[in-house]
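REQUEST ID: PR-0412
SUBMITTED BY: lab tech R.K.
PRIORITY: routine
TASK: structure prediction, single protein chain
INPUT:
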Amino acid sequence: MEIGHADKISELGAPSMWIEWGDLARKNNSCNLGSGFPNFPLHPDLREELVSAAENPVTCWYTRAQGHPKLIEEIIATYSPLVGREIQPTEAIVTIGAYQGIFWSFEAFVQAGDEVIVFDPMFDAYRLDCVLAGAKFVPVALKLESGSWVLEEELFKNSFNCNTKMIVVNTPHNPTGKVFTRKELEFISKLSKEYNCLILADEVYDRYVFDGHEHLSIASLPGMWERTITLCSAGKMFGVTGWRVGWAFGGANLIEKLFRICKCDTFGASTILQEALAGMLQRQRLCIPPKESYFQWASNIFVENYTKLQKAFTNANMPVIPAEGGFFMIVDCTKRRFKFQDSPEFQSSVETFDIKIAKGIVNKYKLSVLPLSLFYGSDSKSKLTSYLRVCFAKSPESVDKAVEIIESFE
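STATUS: complete
OUTPUT:
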């Protein structure tokens, strides 16, 4: 007789889209622009910090569960100027990736009867953690208007009620590449105060914003520190997603609740990696021209990659929606007709158009990209089904290979 599972397991749906599309990429030995991780080698500065950390015997031991003291010190020194206040040691905590920070935040603050507002399309972890917490998920669609993703104020305002407990604000935004404007963040802040909501600010791409745009941390706005948990990721920041280290900061009253969940979950991130990352953060903070910081180095690579891919897709009659920040560009796949669209398999498939195109590209051309529709809730009424998400935060070699493939489209 089969052992019954909790009802919430069924609500989580099928296995993760990352498993399905990751398997498809590996099966085809594809050039992978679907997964959102930089694939270039460890930066020499970070390698030096890792070697130095390995030579320190302290890094072989457990460190403080709330975070390795040296890393907490550097988080405080790095982010205090960005939020306009002196962050205290009790106002920061280290997580095993920002992913864990999302989970802790939902577990600590959300329960059955609560509602969580998230901007659609979105990173799937928000919806899944909402289900685990027993809360209601309320997607608010970003509108694609004249080549930009826009927050519709009236639609957002009408999503609130007395049960609204949390708003997830991801900027720069995955998957769209949108950077929320000061005006938009001030409007979000105003409503969060009016309805007494917590802000979960997912800012893992905060170091990568393109010319003409500015990243503003919502926690820096008046009256928002006490109601905002900000999440960051060393993996996204320094191209080491496999290290699984992130952090959260906010008012001590909020971080203390996360620590309570921490005690019931994994006890602390890797000491040696925290030691190395502390050294790397310090290097960036003290970096003086003409020395190039890691962020400048990586940004230059990403901008060049973006330019190459934008040109290749445009020439292939697949227009790119301009990205304002982050790791991703959105590509319109309606104007280009591929030969594989005439196949019986394509014609008979009931999957959305973007899914069929993405599968055709990876199977025929060995280039992995992701359908944008996967980032919408299954019951979303605003789902766009004619766009692809493409990651440009890759090695120049990977992008050059992708460009060759795009140029071979027929």
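NOTES: The CA atoms of residues 373 and 384 lie 6 Å apart.
REVIEWED BY: pending
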